[in-house]
Design a protein that fits this description.
The chain is α/β, with parallel strands linked by helices and about 400 residues long. About 35% of the residues lie in helices and about 20% in strands. It has 15 helices and 15 strands. Strand 11, helix 9 and strand 12 (about 280-285) form a beta-alpha-beta unit. Helix 5 runs parallel beside helix 6, helix 6 (about 185-200) packs parallel to helix 7 (about 220-230) and helix 8 packs parallel to helix 9.
């Protein structure tokens, strides 16, 4: 496809902030120039300067920004199908973790895998996301829990973006779990923080994350990690209030975090704090579904306080082996009572915000030409369908 062209005959959901609903423009045109959007609006209003460009008529298909999966753990070794079976036999996520399973079991498999092995296993996951219209994905470390493996995971994450037409944003998640037999405070001081310093020095870190939970790290420990991130000039985000309420969401807001993720046990007061900080609430229905959680995120409180909500797959081998962002959108609607508009905004505009990206997530002049063209007539169909992928074409940086 030419570098400068017009997408025409489409129904465009711009998702522009302040637009009415989806920001729909019927019988629209989008001018793509050098990987950016140069103009968007009704085809009847297309400026004469663009009339001579190649036109690609999409015959009423819906165009949205390319989707953004803002929370994944897709670089890892092994799988945890056995633990899935244990959960079906009645074991809880916390019981499995305390028995030496959970995150710790994936750590052993990831430590034992080479960079080449990790890349080979992660590429099909990236391909699955691309095939569903995803143009940007966040990838976390956190299954190493030692300096060498954390760096190995982040190098593989960077390599994914080199080998596939997708933007990969990395998060250092050294504070993911306490290694077996280790003291949490000693681990933070002697392993996590030095690994963060080394990863930052190697240019492998875009943001810093942590798991603030009773089975992982408390707020005092996460404060030390966030202080180091702040000293390095790195933004933070946090797995917060997934299994209990221990103050992680308030901590994330205190540090103006990009996002607080999971947030099932967040309160109305937490919602107010997130709104004040401008922190995005990322809901992850795949984990809620997989671990049989019953406490849903306070979606109405987020609405009431004007908190931006994003939706991610949380694709990981244990608590959310979910490889479909489209299905995550449906689950956010059916399990959390989000609207299809909120789900689509949550995988475009708000997901970009959760990653600190300002050049994508909406269709507007000056934004990246990361677009998804769908074989649908109404954007609500994206959240409505269950295990349906209506993608016609994905455009990344102006290129199919």
């Amino acid at each position: 496809m030419a570098q400068r062209y017009v997408i025409s005959g489409a129904r465009v959901a711009t998702l522009a902030k302040g637009a009415d609903g989806y920001g729909l423009v019927d019988d629209a045109a989008i001018v793509v120039d050098g990987g950016r959007i140069d103009w968007v609006g009704p085809a009847a209003d297309l400026p004469a300067d663009y009339a001579g460009l190649p036109h690609h008529d999409h015959r009423g298909r819906v165009v949205t920004p390319a989707l953004i999966d803002c929370h994944t753990h897709i670089v890892h070794g092994g799988n945890r199908a056995r633990e899935f079976e244990m959960r079906l036999n009645g074991a809880s996520y916390e019981e499995i973790a305390r028995a030496g399973g959970g995150i710790v079991s994936t750590v052993a498999a990831t430590r034992g895998a080479s960079e080449a092995d990790l890349l080979a296993s992660a590429l099909p996951r990236i391909d699955a996301l691309i095939a569903q219209g995803v143009g940007t994905v966040e990838v976390k470390s956190g299954y190493g829990l030692d300096l060498e493996t954390e760096l190995k995971m982040l190098r593989v994450a960077r390599a994914l973006g080199d080998q596939r037409p997708i933007t990969v944003v990395t998060s250092f998640l050294g504070a993911h779990a306490v290694p077996a037999g280790a003291d949490a405070d000693t681990y933070i001081d002697e392993v996590c923080l030095p690994a963060l310093e080394a990863a930052h020095a190697e240019g492998l870190v875009d943001a810093v994350d942590g798991f603030c939970e009773g089975i992982a790290f408390g707020t005092a420990q996460m404060t030390r990690v966030f202080d180091r991130a702040r000293a390095l000039g790195l933004p933070v985000k946090l797995h917060a209030e997934q299994l209990s309420h221990i103050g992680g969401t308030a901590l994330a807001a205190q540090y103006d975090a990009l996002s607080a993720d999971h947030v099932e046990y967040a309160t109305a007061e937490d919602a107010a704090a997130l709104a004040k900080a401008g922190t995005v609430a990322v809901v992850l229905p795949g984990a809620f579904y997989t671990i049989h959680e019953t406490q849903a995120p306070p979606v109405q409180a987020f609405r009431d306080h004007g908190v931006a909500m994003a939706v991610g797959t949380d694709w990981n081998p244990g608590s959310s082996p979910l490889g479909s962002l489209l299905l995550a959108m449906n689950m956010a609607c059916t399990l959390f009572r989000m609207t299809p508009l909120e789900a689509l905004t949550g995988t475009t505009r708000n997901a970009a915000r959760a990653l600190g990206l300002t050049d994508r997530g909406v269709i507007a002049p000056g934004m990246r030409a990361d677009l998804a063209i769908w074989n649908i007539s109404d954007p609500a169909e994206l959240a409505y369908g269950i295990a349906i992928n209506p993608l016609h074409t994905r455009i990344f940086g102006g290129l199919e």
